[in-house]
Amino acid sequence: MNTVEIIRKKRDGKNLEENEIDFLISSYTKNKIPDYQFSAFLMAAFLNGMNKEETSSLTKAMLYSGKVINLKSIPGVKIDKHSTGGVGDKTSLILAPIAAAAGINVPMISGRGLGHSGGTLDKLESIPGFRTDLNLADYKRVIKKCGAVLIGQTKDIAPADKLIYSLRDVTATVESIPLITASIMSKKLAEGIDGLVLDVKTGSGAFMKKLEDAEMLAQSLLDTAKSFDKKVIAFITDMNQPLGNYIGNWLEVYESIKVLQGEVKGDLLELSKTLSGAMIFLGGKASSIEEGKEISQELIDNGKAFEKFLEIVKLQGGNVKLIEQPEKYPKAKVVDKVISKEDGYIKSIDNFKIGMAALELGAGRKTKEDKIDFKAGIIFKKKIGDFVKKGEIIAEMYSSSEAKSKNVKSIFYSFLEFSKEKVTIPELIKDIIN
Q1: Is residue 265 part of a domain?
Q2: Residue of 168, 201, 285, 308 marked active site
Q3: What is the pTM of this model?
């Protein structure tokens, strides 16, 4: 194999063979190809695209650059969910215990916050003692015992992805659907799953802001999953406003607890039930997604979903008492309120800026070295379509810094658009692809 010839071939818009892609990934992972050559390949793939077969081959090469977890010793079907991320997206914390309580094994390898988008691992680690760094033996032990486990990517899982992602980040090649697909699917397929539910976000708070881009990514992920004989369903969902009302790590855990206890309704509950319903359906415990949703609601109503969450937290070292009594969690030092300056309906929310505001308050990282303030974040009191009176509280901000809170408050109101006329509420689920 000749690296230069493979790069030239892709540069000229030709399709690569599986063995050529294998060679590139294997050689780069083993440090036999320098960054500058692999960067050239990434840019060629970014500009000229990759077809279904190439994307599948790239995913396979990245998948087998490390270990593929074998869960055959654990009885039952293994189904996971992947979301492309957004503001207030905490569904993993809700649907994992629901699906596990329904008899589905949920082996979940999650990520940290990325830019304006919060990360499942950071949310879980806001629970004192909760371990997301389990080794593979403990990963299997926990899922065997309670049916669900939520950890971070280990050095053994798709190591090629870690190397390639960091290079994509500095070579302006992140926004490539084939490269995104291979990155996501190589990690998900390494979990040992039989099926996958995809939640691809679109809107102002999503990475795929245009609906057509979200649909293209969903189709690419779905095609790749099917090429590995995995059961798969993709949902295109709205991210034009925060999901639920709470943004920030512990705040989102708190809201998830309240959903699992049956105390919170609305878009967060609806989407969580839809996704867990699809997992229950793919796992063969329901004859349809709708029946899966009904089972999900039953498991919330009878308390079994919340009991399962307590079990997961306990097995992964978390403080169960704080889950049972979340009001005892330490409070943020600074609480500030955003007050409406006018009467009107909330017409739109710049959800990206809301996510960045939560980050500025301390709920996310600006650099890899930054330490997250688990108590920081925002509670939205209103949603798109709600009527707000002048002087009414729109949102509450939580932080450890008065300066940070003051800075965010000074611009927060500009993130919202009001209307004197009634406003159409955004459709939560925009499409289902299966």
Answers
A1: yes
A2: 168
A3: 0.91
Where is 394: in which H helix or E strand?
strand 393-399
Q: Is 183 known to be catalytic?
A: yes
Indicate which CATH number applies to the domain containing 45.
1.20.970.10
Residue 161: active-site member: yes
Domain match, 211 and 306 both: yes
Q: Within a domain: residue 177?
A: yes
Residue with tokens 């919170």: 264
Note if 82 is an active site residue: yes
Q: What is the DSSP letter of 362?
A: I
**In this structure, what are the phi and psi dihedrals at residue 73, rounded to the nearest 5 degrees?**
-75, -15
Q: Which of 9, 10, 123, 187 is catalytic?
A: 187
From the first residue on, what is the mean pLDDT of each consecutive set of 10 residues in the chain (434 residues)?
A: 96 97 97 96 97 96 93 94 92 97 94 72 95 92 96 86 86 89 92 94 90 94 94 96 96 98 96 98 97 98 98 98 96 95 96 93 78 94 96 96 93 95 95 90
- For residue 390, give its domain range: 330-419
Cross-strand bridge partners of residue 419: 345
In a domain, 56, yes or no: no
Question: How many separate domains does the chain show?
Answer: 3
Type of residue at 52: K
Per annotation, catalytic residue among 9, 10, 82, 231: 82
What pLDDT was estimated at residue 115? 63
27 and 128 both lie in a single domain: no
